[in-house]
Design brief:
Length: 131
């Protein structure tokens, strides 16, 4: 079982299945919402993601059909969810255990912060990965 929580601990989760490949998203909405150069993400199947403290959860629709869920107490972003998918996209900064997966690539490099240099051997994709 993999555990994680927000900064204040009111929202927590357990994962009882695999965490997908880790990727780093440099899109402008990730940068703005996280207040950082990029966000580190991985997919988790809905059925393996168990959330606690939903009373503290709110969401913001950052693009049509795409919600970003965050803790209303501390503001930490926990996951994103796109309409019609059967997985969530976890914000890996909230995880407390090792996810058991590895970094695989960067996406939305076309929108990366102009003050940040990607020093990485991982593949970089201008937008979404090409497959
Ligand atoms: Zn919190
Ligand atoms: Zn992004």
């Amino acid at each position: 079982m993999i555990h994680g929580c927000c900064l204040c601990g009111n929202v927590s989760y357990e994962i009882d299945g695999p965490v997908g490949d880790i990727f780093h998203c440099h899109c402008v909405t990730c940068r703005k919402s996280q207040g950082s150069a990029f966000s580190s993400l991985a997919r988790v199947a809905d059925e393996n993601f168990h959330l606690y403290g939903e009373d503290y959860l709110n969401s913001y629709e950052s693009s049509p059909g795409k919600e970003r869920f965050f803790c209303t107490e501390c503001g930490a972003q926990i996951y994103g969810k796109r309409e019609g998918t059967d997985f969530i996209t976890l914000r890996l900064g909230t995880i407390d255990d090792h996810p058991g997966s590895e970094e695989s690539h960067h996406i939305w490099v076309a929108q990366k912060a102009n003050w940040y240099t990607i020093d990485s051997h991982l593949p970089q994709h201008p937008e979404f990965e090409e497959n």
